[in-house]
Design a protein that fits this description.
By secondary structure, the chain is of the alpha+beta class. Among the domains are: about 110 residues, PAS domain (Beta-Lactamase, 2-Layer Sandwich), CATH 3.30.450.20; about 150 residues, 2-Layer Sandwich (Heat Shock Protein 90). Helices cover about 55% and strands about 15% of the residues. It has 14 helices and 14 strands. The strands form four sheets. A five-stranded antiparallel sheet has the order 4-3-7-6-5. α7 packs parallel to α8 and α11 packs antiparallel against α14. The longest helix is centred in the middle third of the chain and has 57 residues. The chain is rod-shaped, with a radius of gyration of 55 Å. Bound molecules: adenosine-5'-diphosphate (ADP). The site of adenosine-5'-diphosphate (ADP) has 22 residues, from α11 and α14. The site of adenosine-5'-diphosphate has 22 residues, from α11 and α14.
Length: about 500
């Protein structure tokens, strides 16, 4: 048998950059790294927000304290002198404090900083109003005059003179040096420790993933090795099943597939062997009668003059016997081929089986008498009907009775029995002939099988009769069985539907 070339992928090693292990590894380590980064961001962000919230809560009263003890306006004008002195005082107390005097629209009226640092002329009033209305202090962002795009935590208090609102003291609480998250991170040892822990956990997780993947893909690699071994011709190679997961199921599937392939290969090998044996048998069975036919005819031609009428007649009779044998063999072969190909389908009908049996008995009676063999039928109920193709079933009876006659010696007995067996009708063809050895019983239904080659040929058999009978009965959903004892007799049994 020629083997099918394996696709390149099954003969090559899987390249490392195509490996499932690598793909899964990269994907999972990537997910781990992302999860680690996400967790780190969440922790630092929460910590930052929490710090700012606490800072704003603690410094909530800063603006109020400044307003309480100072004057900022002289009539409607800003008291620039007083303001300057105040800012100097505040600078001395807390250099990081950023304090602004705002008018009622949020416009910046005074501050203490280098002018180039102040990038806004006014700040939004809405956060200021929210701050002043808050019952429960919560984190609030206000515009930072030192930044055009970044908001900051603040404290604010209104300046009221004689019941009239003049403006606000607005203080930015998170000083510039803590404004960036990086500064905050650098400043916090807790955050540093947290980040290190997260990094370590991510690294350990990634290593664990790599190890688990290595173990998982190892079973896959082993399975692939087994498959390759099977493909190379070791038909007994089977995968070890260690788990009930998908890989285990795959191994089981492969084993099942391998069993099926193995079975099919065996079937093909048997069929191939049988085919070769059949060709040998056919040629042998054809060659023998053709050779002797030719021999008799050639003798007749060569010795035409020297032969008397009786001798010629004997030769021609022998030649005729061989042609009969040949045509029988060819007919049997043809019929078996049609049965094997499914070309012959039974024409089912119901008929009284007794009629068919008595026809067969009549047909073979003369031959039986000539051989001094008793042939009769025992029918339990003459009215018994069976379902079947009369022509085909007659062929079965013919083959069985013909065999019985051929293998039963003088003084023997052949009986066709018909009786009820449940809903079916049981038929038995029994003889008191030479019997069949036990070791041959299972093979006599094989085509061309003869218990003793010379014995069958001598008695005119082709070795196809029982094979044909078995196939015909299979078309009637029936199975033929045989029981035999050497020198006692043989009984063939089958059932037909009533
Ligand atoms: P054949 O044409 O040679 O009889 P069959 O297929 O009908 O071929 O039978 C196969 C073989 O089974 C025979 O060659 C013979 O050896 C054996 N056999 C069949 N029927 C009988 C029987 N009634 N008694 C003894 N041997 C039998």
């Amino acid at each position: 048998m020629s083997s099918i070339p394996a696709p390149a992928s099954t003969t090559e090693r899987v390249r490392w950059y195509h490996s499932l292990y690598l793909k899964l590894g990269v994907a999972l380590v990537g997910i781990f790294a992302l999860a680690g980064l996400g967790a780190f961001w969440l922790i630092t962000h929460t910590a930052e927000m929490h710090t700012l919230e606490v800072q704003q809560k603690l410094s909530r009263g800063v603006a109020q304290a400044i307003v309480k003890h100072n004057q900022f306006f002289d009539g409607d004008e800003v008291d620039q002198e007083g303001l300057k002195a105040l800012f100097m005082k505040l600078m001395a107390v807390n250099p990081t404090l950023e304090v602004y005097l705002l008018d009622t629209d949020g416009k910046i009226l005074g501050y203490d900083a280098p002018a180039e640092k102040i990038v806004r002329e006014a700040v939004a009033l809405q956060p200021i109003q929210e701050f002043l209305q808050q019952q429960q202090p919560e984190l609030l962002w206000g515009q930072d005059p030192r930044s055009s795009n970044q908001d900051n935590i603040f404290s604010v208090h209104p300046i009221d003179v004689d019941g009239q609102r003049k403006g606000y003291i607005y203080s930015i609480l998170a000083s510039e040096e803590y404004a960036s998250i990086n500064e905050l991170r650098k400043a916090s040892s807790f955050l540093r420790d947290g980040a290190t822990t997260i990094l370590a956990m991510t690294a350990i997780g990634a290593i664990a993933v790599v190890i688990v993947l290595l173990l998982l893909t190892r079973t896959l690699r082993r399975l692939r090795q087994t498959m390759a071994e099977f493909r190379r011709g070791n038909r007994s190679a089977r995968a070890a099943v260690h788990s009930r997961d998908e890989v285990g199921a795959l191994a089981l599937d492969f084993n099942f597939l391998a069993d099926t392939v193995q079975q099919q290969v065996e079937q093909i090998q048997t069929a191939d062997y049988m085919r070769r044996e059949m060709v040998t048998n056919i040629s042998h069975d054809l060659r023998t009668p053709v050779a002797s036919l030719r021999g008799y005819l050639e003798t007749c031609l060569l010795k035409e003059e020297g032969m008397d009428a009786q001798q010629r007649r004997q030769h021609l009779k022998a030649a005729l016997k061989n042609t009969v044998r040949l045509s029988r063999l060819i007919e049997d072969l043809f019929e078996l081929a049609k049965l094997d190909a499914g070309d012959l389908q039974p024409k089912m009908e119901r008929f009284p089986v007794a009629e068919l049996v008595s026809d067969v008995v009549q047909k073979f009676q003369l031959r039986a008498q000539n051989r001094a063999v008793k042939l009769d039928a025992k029918i339990e109920d003459m009215a018994t009907q069976v379902q079947g193709d009369i022509g085909m079933l007659e062929r079965v009876f013919d083959n069985l009775v013909d065999n019985a006659l051929r293998y039963t010696d003088e003084g023997g007995q052949i009986t066709i029995e018909v009786s009820k067996n449940g809903d079916d009708v049981e038929v038995r063809v029994a003889d008191t002939g030479i019997g069949i050895p036990d070791e041959d019983l299972s093979r006599i239904f094989d085509r061309f099988y003869r218990v003793d080659k010379s014995r069958g040929e001598d008695r005119g058999g082709t070795g196809l009769g029982l094979a044909i009978a078995e196939r015909i009965l299979a078309l009637h959903n029936s199975v033929i069985s045989v029981a035999s004892q050497q020198r006692v007799g043989t009984t063939f049994t089958f059932c037909l539907s009533a």
